[in-house]
Design the sequence.
């Protein structure tokens, strides 16, 4: 995937996440820009972000409930 083709990334990730639910997780890996786009799409779609982070040989969960648009100051 071309790290500079972010519009293409967004289209592909939106399609890949069309059936995602708010109990699914993002596992950050690979290119930082891909992680950023995937997390933004997931958070926008579900109003929360669920991450699985690899630490010391196992995965840990991190769940973040995000405010509605306009609430962040």
Sequence:
């Amino acid at each position: 995937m071309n790290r500079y083709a972010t519009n293409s990334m967004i289209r592909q990730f939106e399609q890949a996440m069309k059936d995602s639910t708010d109990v699914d997780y993002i596992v950050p890996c690979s290119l930082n820009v891909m992680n950023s786009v995937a997390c933004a799409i997931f958070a926008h779609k579900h109003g929360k972000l669920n991450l699985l982070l690899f630490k010391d040989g196992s995965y840990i969960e991190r769940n973040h409930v995000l405010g509605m648009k306009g609430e962040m100051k």
